[in-house]
Design brief:
The complex is a heterodimer. By secondary structure, chain A is of the alpha+beta class. Helices cover about 15% and strands about 40% of the residues of chain A. Chain A is globular. In chain B, the strands form 2 sheets. Chain B has a 6-stranded mixed sheet, sandwiched between helices. Chain B is elongated. The chains are: A alpha+beta, B alpha/beta. Bound molecules: guanosine-5'-triphosphate and magnesium ion.
């Protein structure tokens, strides 16, 4: 079975392939421009609680808020 | 002959401004965080006898306009008719950078040179890129460079020159999408054919933007083809999306991403495996919800300590120097009026302000280091949670920290905030942040009245101001500009060792403004104050203009324990906050005399009120330019109210505690 989960549920060190973004066109556009597009591999570097997640996509690190991370759906690798 | 126009475009923080500075020899602001440049900047360079106008654009992740800085970049690429576009890309994250490159190509821009920047960093990370193969794969020239180290600049100039001469043929690759998507694109381009749009924009680009439901493009197309035909197009898109089961922009993005991924295999490879970088190790501490805040507190305490420990002795020394200069000069001037004007007015007023130059320089110096190391983005990430409690996004920390230097760039820097409402709130509260001008006032009063407790007292004024700014953000966000919060994401750039040259030039460029102001506005202010306090009758008589002016406001000032002199100096401080000191300098002459005229409590109230009471004229102007008159006036009125309330509270609390 394919494991499709929100990015926010991944633990540090885990990776996933982006499959979908949940949100309006404005939200999607912003995420897409940063290279977080369906097909891209995202690795969770750190996940702080409270606090943001640090993720790595094609060589770039981003800090993303929990709310944002829960709207990025990935297939766990 | 008209100059050829060269546009610098690319993702944020890739080094566009660094390239710009090395091309033009200018010193525009460079910093290691996304969103340094928020408006387009122009400069000129000459190569082989040809002059080029270079335009440095704000960084954008995509050419879909979310925030003002992105709109600025896109509009210039679309309507600015650049002769050559230099697309600066970061070699360490090429995949993402090429997404924008593809958009530039899809816009139909042909004269594009790729500046493959930060190759030094890429090499360290084990990324190998072959510029020749890359150039073949993309169909445009590629120049490998390290702008920071000045590598590749000459070659870039050469390529720009050759291209502007029309000697380079390019053939930019554009991604082809699935047949279904291509059919949609064709359907839309057919509907747009024959309209005026066809002459001004590449139809394929418009079609792709419509598929992505880009607001601006939808509005543009609406104007040309009318509501009915646009609706027909959008319905058609909706049907295609229904067949796919997902939104078009996602389909396009993923296919574009795949296309670039395949493309990069032709010229990029990795050697060695990725080990944990220093950046990751540092981030583990600096973004950590506990250690991160401890580190933040330590950093800002260190900054503060550094400024005062090094700056105060210099300030005292300079102050002494100006005083002895005045003493030496006085007997040399026979004319009494001239002597008064020069010694009491100009040297007393301007000198008292200028003596704070070392502190101001050190403040900018410390801020520059923070910016250049790459710490700003971390502060934004760390503070996201706390700022949200006050209704602000984490990213608003960046403009607010910049505000410690000067509020005007802080107001400008809010442009990077995507959410219009959050941007406005940040802008409205940013003038509360004590800028370098207020640093001099705070430091002056703290030094004169609190001796060895100087730093603690000054720090407390800063903390009051920051607290007031945050509470105001909460109030304004809750009752004045309501709305929802936006999602948070920020790029965390690699930490870099600051280049001392950049840091020193940058802090000098900015603190120079302080000296310039001293030579103009503050000089004029000091002369005006000198005149007002000596005519028609000398001060102390109760008949001077200054006293009369001050008496008007004195009843109000009394509520917070202050007198007419405070009123006069605060009035002059509206033009530039430094005038608060220079006014006291002119009226009293020496620091000793000022000490005898006020109690420490009064001095403290004056320091707090000066910090909070109104944005200076330049900041009011910036807020008006970035929003409108209504908001500029709102902040002004709001700040006056807040300063009065806080001043009255502190005064009465102090009196109750027996400190008066
Ligand atoms: N290692 C390395 N760092 C570089 C190079 N070029 C620029 N930088 C650094 O990258 C950071 C960003 O540079 P800027 O020139 O401000 O980038 P920008 O593209 O103008 O950024 P925005 O204005 O925010 O869009 C700075 O810290 C520069 O010192 C390079 O070739 N190598
Ligand atoms: Mg820049």
């Amino acid at each position: 079975m394919l494991m499709i989960v929100p990015l926010s549920s991944l633990k540090p060190g885990e990776r996933g392939i982006v499959v979908n973004l949940q949100g309006g066109p404005g939200f999607r556009n912003r995420v897409l421009g940063m290279g977080i597009a369906p097909g891209a591999v995202v690795q969770v570097v750190e996940a702080y609680n409270p606090g943001p997640m640090v993720i790595s996509v094609s060589g770039t690190r981003f800090a993303v808020g929990r709310g944002m991370a829960s709207r990025i759906l990935v297939r766990k690798l | 002959m008209a100059m050829k126009v060269v546009a610098l475009a690319g993702n944020p923080n890739v080094g566009k401004t660094t390239v710009f500075n090395s091309l033009t020899g200018m010193r525009q602001h460079v910093g290691n965080w996304p969103g340094v440049t928020v408006e387009k900047k122009e400069g000129v360079f000459e190569y082989k006898g040809e002059k080029f106008l270079v335009v440095d654009l704000p960084g954008t992740y995509s050419l879909t306009a979310h925030s003002i800085d992105e709109l600025v970049a896109r509009n210039f690429l679309l309507n600015g008719n650049p002769d050559v576009v230099v697309n600066v890309v970061d070699a360490t994250s090429l995949l993402r950078n090429l997404l924008l490159t593809m958009e530039i190509f899809e816009m139909g821009l042909k004269n594009v040179v790729i500046a493959l920047n930060k190759i030094d960093l890429a090499e360290k990370k084990g990324i190998r890129i072959d510029p020749l193969k890359m150039s073949k794969a993309l169909g445009v020239p590629v120049v490998a460079m390290s702008a920071k180290e000045g590598i590749g600049i000459e070659e870039l100039k050469d390529k720009i020159y050759e291209m502007a001469q029309g000697r380079i043929k390019t053939n930019p690759v554009v991604p082809r999408y699935d047949p279904e998507v291509e059919r949609e694109i064709e359907h839309i381009t057919n509907s747009l054919k024959g309209t005026k749009l066809e002459r001004r924009y590449p139809l394929r680009w418009l079609a792709i933007k419509l598929l992505q439901r880009d607001d601006e493009v939808m509005k543009l197309v609406l104007r040309h083809i009318g509501e009915e035909r646009l609706r027909e197009i959008m319905t058609h898109i909706g049907e295609a999306e229904a067949r796919y089961g997902r939104a078009m922009d996602l389909i396009i993005a993923s296919q574009k991403y795949e296309f670039i991924d395949r493309l990069t295999h032709e010229f990029m490879s990795y050697v060695g495996k990725e080990k944990e970088s220093l950046t990751d190790q540092l981030d583990r501490i600096l973004i950590h919800p506990v250690y991160g805040f401890i580190a933040l507190a330590m950093v800002f305490y260190a900054v503060f300590k550094f400024i005062f420990a090094l700056g105060l002795p210099l300030q005292e020394w300079l102050d002494g120097l100006f005083a002895s200069f005045g003493e030496w000069l006085a007997p040399q001037i026979a004319n009494e009026t001239l002597r008064g004007l020069l010694v009491d007015g100009i040297i007393g007023g301007v000198g008292s302000v200028l003596s704070f130059f070392p502190l101001v320089f050190l403040l900018f110096f410390a801020l520059s280091i923070l910016e250049d190391v790459g710490y700003m983005a971390r502060v934004a990430a760390l503070m996201e949670g706390i700022m949200r409690k006050f209704g602000l996004p984490g990213k608003s920390v960046i403009p607010l920290v910049l505000g410690l230097g000067c509020n005007v760039p802080a107001v400008m820097a809010t442009r990077t905030l995507e959410d219009e409402r959050e941007r406005l709130v940040t802008m409205l509260v940013s003038p509360f942040i004590p800028c370098s001008a207020r640093l001099s006032v705070i430091s002056f009063l703290a030094g004169a009245f609190f001796g060895s407790n100087h730093s603690i007292v000054a720090l407390s004024v800063y903390l009051i101001a920051i607290l007031v700014a945050l509470l105001s953000a909460w109030l304004v966000g809750r009752f004045v500009v309501k709305g929802e919060e936006s999602p948070f994401v920020i790029e965390l750039p690699e930490y870099l060792i600051p280049s001392w040259k950049t840091v020193v030039t940058h802090s000098w460029e900015r603190s120079k403004e302080f000296v310039k102001k001293a030579g103009t506005i503050i000089l004029l202010g000091a002369i005006a104050i000198w005149y007002l306090s000596n005519y028609p009758v000398e001060i102390g008589s109760g008949k001077s203009y200054a006293e009369k002016l001050g008496y008007l406001f004195e009843p109000y000032m009394r509520l917070m324990g202050l007198d007419w002199k405070a009123a006069v100096s605060l009035l002059f401080g509206i033009i530039a906050k430094e005038n608060v000191i220079s006014t006291y300098g002119v009226i009293y002459g020496t620091t000793e005399a000022i000490k005898n005229a006020m109690t420490p409590l009064q001095a403290y109230v004056l320091a707090v009120v000066t910090t909070l009471y109104i944005p200076c004229i330049a900041t009011i102007g910036a807020i008006r330019a970035e929003s409108n008159w209504k908001w500029a006036l709102f902040t002004t009125a709001y700040m006056i109210a807040v300063a009065s309330i806080v001043g009255i509270l502190i005064w009465h609390a102090g009196v109750a505690l027996g400190l008066a």
